[in-house]
Amino acid sequence: MPEPIDVQAAANLRDWADRERERAPELAHILDAFAANGLPTPDECTPWEQVRDEQYARLGIVVDSWHVA
């Protein structure tokens, strides 16, 4: 039997679901563009590290260094 979640957590999940629903047309447009035009070349793409760092900056997260084991 699933474990119930509290009222605030449920509200947060519903808010997240609403935001994802709003973004669905954007994702569909991108997928349609890939289907019509193929995938972009690596030179046309933004490196994932840059995307990650920009997102961290928007969230106010500061990471001094990265350690990969």
* Quaternary status: single chain
**Largest β-sheet summary:** none
Unreliable stretches, pLDDT < 50, 5 or more residues? none
* Strand composition percent: under 5%
Number of helices: 2
Give the proportion of residues in helices: 55-70%
- Global Rg: 18 Å
- State mean pLDDT (0 to 100 scale): 87
- Global structural class: mainly alpha
* Terminus-to-terminus distance: 38 Å
| DSSP summary, beta strand count | 0
Specify the overall morphology: flat
**N to C succession of SSEs:** HH
List keywords for this structure.
mainly alpha, 62% helix
General description of the model:
The chain is mostly helical. Helices cover 62% and strands 0% of the residues. The longest helix is centred in the first third of the chain and has 31 residues, at 7-37. It is flat and about 45 Å long. The mean pLDDT is 87.
Short description:
This protein is an all-alpha fold and 69 residues long. The protein contains two helices and no strands. The protein is 62% helix and 0% strand.
Helices and strands, with pairings:
Layout lengths: L6 H31 L10 H12 L10
